[in-house]
Amino acid sequence: MPENSDSNQTLSTKEKITNASMKLFSELGYKNASVRKIASAVGIRESALYNHFKNKEDIFLCVASEIFNSPFNNDDSPTLTSAQLNNPKSYLQKFVTEYKLVTFDKTQESLFRILMIELLQNKVLREGFLNEFHNKNIKVLSGIFFTLMQNGIVRSSDPILMAHEFIAPLFYLRLHVTLLRIDNLSTSNLSSQFEKHVDFFWESIKV
Question: Most buried residue, 1, 16, 63, 114, by CB count within 10 Å?
Answer without folding.
Answer: 63
